[in-house]
């Protein structure tokens, strides 16, 4: 009998994993009986399923870099995972970095064979490398148009916010990555700060925009010069008229 169940049928068949268990043999004759129990273990090759080893993982930069996969098998299999094309990751770093993203192959091995399973790891991280660019230049002539563009790395893709000199001639891009200024004036000069944010954090960058009004000074100077010239001509004319008289 098996596990104190009903007597089993005699004969032989292919062994399956369900045959594992405790069996009791009872020998009986007219003088009595004898019992002996034995535990039967069924060995089999490894297998790796989704439950013990999900095919897709989401890691966050900075967390402990641990890629574990559970496999079934008897004897219990040894499982080792390595990044395809880079056998030294993820053990090369104790904490997750963006370099850990990629596909890994996990191999479960015992005396009866092996099983393989690929695992894809995505690494999310807070915004980084925020940079601003002023097109065509951060030195703008009065009346000219310019735009400030903001770029940042991050996963999930970051959203963007701005702190800048308030003005009525501003127009933000559809994704808020840029701000355009038409017919720049003195009110548009100052610091333009872009902040990139996602669920893991935020980071900011800034650039200084200067509005050059030197041409106004030139016009003023020319105006003054013109006035002086007019006065000089008037004085000369008066002197001439006086002399003629």
At the first level of CATH, the class of the domain at 126-213 is Mainly Beta
Bin the strand percentage. Answer: over 45%
Helix content: 10-25%
By CATH, the topology of the domain at 126-213 is Immunoglobulin-like
Name of the CATH homologous superfamily of the domain at 126-213: Immunoglobulins
Under the CATH scheme, the architecture of the domain at 126-213 is Sandwich
What does the radius of gyration come to?
41 Å
Described by the principal axes of the CA atoms, the overall outline is: rod-shaped
* Poorly predicted tracts of residues: 217-243
SSE sequence, one letter per element = EEEEEEEEEEEEEEEH
By DSSP, the count of extended strands is 15
> How does the helix and strand content classify structurally?
mainly beta
Gap from first CA to last CA: 150 Å
Q: How many helices? A: 1
Let me know the largest β-sheet: 7 strands, mixed
Overall average residue pLDDT:
86
Domain Ig-like: 46-122, 127-210
Organism: Anseranas semipalmata (Magpie goose)
Region (Disordered): 1-21
Transmembrane segments: 215-241
Helix and strand topology:
Elements: E1 21-29, E2 32-40, E3 44-47, E4 56-60, E5 72-74, E6 78-83, E7 102-110, E8 113-135, E9 139-141, E10 146-155, E11 159-163, E12 170-172, E13 178-181, E14 190-198, E15 201-212, H1 214-244
Parallel strand pairs: 4-8, 9-15
Antiparallel strand pairs: 1-2, 3-5, 6-7, 7-8, 8-10, 10-13, 11-14, 12-13, 14-15
